[in-house]
Design goal:
With about 550 residues, this protein is mostly beta strands. The protein folds into two domains: about 400 residues, 7 Propeller (Methylamine Dehydrogenase, Chain H), CATH 2.130.10.80; about 110 residues, Sandwich (Immunoglobulin-like), CATH 2.60.40. It contains three helices and 42 strands. The strands form ten sheets. The chain has a six-stranded antiparallel β-sheet, with no helix packed on it. β12 and β13 form a beta hairpin. The structure holds 2-acetamido-2-deoxy-beta-D-glucopyranose (6 copies) and copper (II) ion (CU). The site of one 2-acetamido-2-deoxy-beta-D-glucopyranose has 5 residues, from β32.
């Protein structure tokens, strides 16, 4: 071997080593398996999202200068995104969706509720009292709008599907505002559909001013026919009977930070499990003590067990060691909760370029994973960071393959793609939670209740019904669990109607190809409302490769 032929490999090894060291220092090498860029341009900024079919997500923005245009050049504000091939189908709307809520109703229709002022230049009407309907069962579905579908103006309201499959719509203000106040507050609720055209007064949203937009609502799990909701705003919470229109219980204050807009935290109803008698436990994490861009975000969570309302009280503990405002909270296929996105400093609201005001800063790039089955002190695990800051107006949701769809971040009044600290983020990421790097095999669902037509529209199932689920798997000794998930309508850190219900598996029978599982559906609509859901089958905590779309019916 002569000198020069020795030199070349040494040089290339050195280059490779240097590159590797630089990558490792930047933390990029270790990121690779967890995050992938699904798309570089979501077409519209992802302010609101809802999974509407196994491979479809509806993305709703406000009216702004989005990259996706109609043929006449007007900006698009909503579209349907295809997870399989990135196809985007434009969904025209008449009104401005900034910023709305939404949820599914019993017939499977997604309803979007409320919005903001007209944008005459782009030919959009005011959406303050609009209801918008879309039937995702239909491949060519388009929005239908009723501009006066709601009885009042609602900007930054919340919605949740009730046990009877109707939509409960709560609060908001009558016009756009940075912080809610007595003059423009809308302390009422209404239910869709309903013959009653009077909004109902809701004192709690007066008592919780000013940090009470996008209030947190969870459906109490029953018993059957119960009409109770958990409602939280600012630092306070109540159990409210929507039928009797009465407060059932005022719960103790969650001391520390405020947790709703603009001091925004995030909340989930933890997984409901038949073996625990569907014990309702609510978790709320993050927020801020002060409505101040310079204020460090809350580094605590509150957890409250609501199974005995007289004893219910908040347990307060550290939020995985990281302060965070504006987190997203995504319940994963194994029932753990992923908190991601958001900032360590500041609050929700628009930055002002003109006045050099950043409402929020110090993006938190590491998700934290919460496991309620662990003892206090061991519940959180910090995960590898993303490289993409996601501040105000970012979203995330579980999708049927067990990954997490992450999009958005849009903290300026208008779409701005460069020249500012936090430009509008159009990149879409997929995050693979730790369960996807496990070595246990993933099940494949082959049929449900005898039907092989899976994920070609939701399969109807009934409460209490025992359905046969046929799976194949390479594991000879699998340990299955089953759960129904509703992924919810996501905006402003509020994951409306998101719900996880584990299901009893009565029997597992091997057959020639795999196994037949007898899975029992939940008993009634307070456990899981009668809407489209996804059935996830896990093996040793590892999700199946694709959950199956079901529609729970009475
Ligand atoms: C909208 O974006 C286009 C580029 O996509 C730009 O040319 C135009 O000036 C923008 N309009 C406004 C009002 O910001
Ligand atoms: C579901 O109900 C909504 C609202 O009542 C209605 O607009 C829609 O057409 C219905 N969809 C189907 C598929 O029946
Ligand atoms: C409430 O907010 C509106 C909109 O910003 C503002 O015009 C009004 O003066 C405020 N009222 C009070 C009492 O602060
Ligand atoms: C629940 O309500 C339905 C219809 O309103 C009624 O038929 C049923 O008996 C009720 N069940 C219970 C447990 O109260
Ligand atoms: C999976 O298996 C590989 C090779 O056998 C091993 O190196 C790795 O640590 C395993 N991973 C987990 C999460 O158990
Ligand atoms: C499920 O299968 C059972 C037995 O074949 C049948 O009686 C039932 O109607 C099916 N349920 C649905 C919702 O298709
Ligand atoms: Cu907003």
């Amino acid at each position: 071997m002569n000198a020069s032929s020795f030199l070349i490999p040494t040089t290339s090894i050195l280059i490779i080593l240097t590159v590797w060291i630089l990558y490792s220092l930047a933390g990029i090498a270790q990121l690779a398996p967890d995050y992938e860029i699904l798309d570089t341009d979501s077409g519209v900024a992802a302010m609101h999202i809802a999974v509407t079919a196994p491979n479809k997500i509806i993305i709703i923005d406000k009216v702004q200068n989005n990259t996706m245009r109609f043929s006449d050049g007007r900006p698009v504000s909503t579209l349907e995104y295809d997870l399989d091939n990135g196809a985007r189908r434009i969904l025209p709307l008449m009104s401005n969706t900034f910023c709305s809520s939404g949820g599914f109703i019993a017939n499977g229709t997604l309803v979007s509720t409320g919005g903001a002022e007209a944008i005459p230049n782009d030919n959009y009407l005011a959406g303050f009292s609009s209801l918008r309907f879309i039937d995702p069962q239909d491949d060519k579905c388009q929005w239908r709008e009723d501009l006066n579908g709601m009885m009042t103006h609602r900007w930054y309201p919340s919605s949740i599907t009730l046990s009877d499959g109707r939509l409960f719509i709560l609060g908001g203000s009558k016009f756009s505002v940075g912080v809610n106040n007595l003059t423009i507050n809308n302390p009422t609720f209404e239910i869709y559909p309903s013959d009653d055209r009077n909004p109902k007064f809701f004192q709690f949203l007066v008592d919780t001013l000013p940090f009470n937009l996008f209030p947190i609502i969870h459906l109490m799990p029953g018993p059957k026919n119960q009409t109770h909701l958990f409602v939280f705003a600012n630092k306070d919470s109540i159990i409210f009977d929507w039928k009797a229109e009465k407060i059932v219980k005022k719960l103790p204050r969650l001391e520390g930070a405020s947790r709703t807009y603009p001091t925004t935290g995030s909340s989930v109803m933890l997984p409901l499990r038949p073996e625990d008698d569907y014990k309702p436990i609510v978790l709320i994490c993050g927020g801020n003590k002060k409505n101040n861009p310079k204020s460090t975000a809350a580094n605590t969570c509150g957890r409250i067990d609501l199974s005995d309302l007289d004893k219910a009280n908040w347990e307060i503990f550290a939020f995985g060691g990281l302060p965070r405002a504006m987190p997203n909270s995504v319940i994963l296929a194994d029932g753990k909760v992923l908190f991601l996105n958001g900032v360590a400093k500041g609050v929700a609201g628009y930055n002002s370029i003109k006045h050099h005001i950043l409402k929020a800063d110090d993006p938190v790039l590491n998700p934290v994973l919460y496991d309620d089955q662990q003892p206090n002190g061991k519940r959180f695990q910090k995960l590898n960071p993303s490289t993409i800051p996601r501040v105000y107006h970012s979203v995330a949701t579980l999708i049927p393959n067990g990954k997490v769809f992450i999009a958005g971040s849009s903290p300026q009044q208008n779409l701005i793609l460069s020249g500012v600290k936090f430009p509008t983020e159009l990149r879409v990421e997929l995050f693979s939670p730790p369960y996807l790097s496990s070595n246990h095999s993933r099940a494949t669902i082959k049929s449900v209740n005898g039907s092989k037509k899976i994920n070609k529209g939701p399969i109807e199932v009934n409460y209490d019904q025992c359905i046969e689920v046929e799976v194949t798997i390479s594991d000879q000794e699998p340990e299955f669990t089953a759960a129904l998930l509703h992924y919810g309508f996501v905006t402003h850190s509020t994951h409306m109607s998101q719900r996880y219900v584990s299901c009893i598996i009565k029997n597992v029978k091997p057959n020639d190809k795999g196994f037949i599982l007898e899975v029992v559906m939940p008993p009634h609509g307070n456990i899981m409302p009668p809407i489209p859901v996804y059935l996830h089958i896990n093996n040793k905590g590892v999700p199946c490769d694709s959950a199956v779309h079901l529609h729970l019916k009475e």
